[in-house]
Amino acid sequence: MDLDSSFSVNAPIEEVWATVMDVERVAGAVPGAELTEKLSDTSYKGVVKVKVGPLTMQYRGQIELVSRDDVNHVATFKGKGQEKAGQGTAEGTATVTLTQAEAEAGAAGAGAGAGGAEGAAGVVTTGVVHGDLKLSGKAAAMGKGVINTVSQQIMKVFAGNLQDMLSGDGGAGGAGGAGGAGAGNNGKGNALNGASLMAGAIGSMFHREKKD
C-alpha cells in the first residue's frame, strides 16, 4: 500500500531538518506513539496507538533510520510492528523529503500553531512523506482510504506540534496520548519523530512510553 502525505511549518529547512532528525528533541510532535527503548542512535523500539472511530489498535515494534542525506534533506526509515492484542502486523518503509520556499505575505504554513513564526522565518519548509506499507489484521480490513485519512490527520497535528516546538513554545507532547491518534481525534497528543512515518501505523514509534 503506497501512501503519501505532507506537512508545512514556518521555519528554515536546516532548522526543521535538525529537529526532525533529532529523536530526543522531536519526541512529542506526532500523536499516538511512544518510544520504549533506544537500541542505537538510529534504531528504537516502541508502542503506537492508532484510533479509527470506535476501533483502537496498539502495536509494539521497531523503527530504524536506514539512510540519511543531509545535503538534500532526505531520510528513509524502516519499521515493523505486531498488534499487542491480536495477530495483525504492520511493516514498511517511509521516505521523508524536505524542501523550502519563500513564505507568502500574510499566509501561515499548513498546520502552523504559533502565529509569529512566519514573520521571523520568512520561509516555509514542507515535508513530503512517501510510505510503502504492508498491513494484516484489523488495519488491513479498513482499506487504503481509511488509513490515508488517519495519516492526514496525524500529519496535521504533527505540523502544529512541530511549529510550536520550532517557535520555542515547547508545545508538543501534551495530554491525550492515551487516546491515540486517528479519525475523530484532533487533539494534540504524545508523539514521535520522522513525520508520521508508516502513515500513522508504524511511523509513529519515536516517543517515550512508561514501560508496562
UniProtKB/TrEMBL annotation:
Concerning Gene3D superfamilies, the annotation shows: 3.30.530.20
Q: Where are the transmembrane segments?
A: none
InterPro entries named in the record? CO_DH_gsu, START-like_dom_sf
User: Known SUPFAM superfamilies for this protein?
Assistant: Bet v1-like
One Pfam family from the record: COXG
Q: What protein name is recorded for this chain?
A: SRPBCC family protein
The record ties this protein, via CDD domains, to: SRPBCC_5
Q: Which organism is it from?
A: Gryllotalpicola reticulitermitis
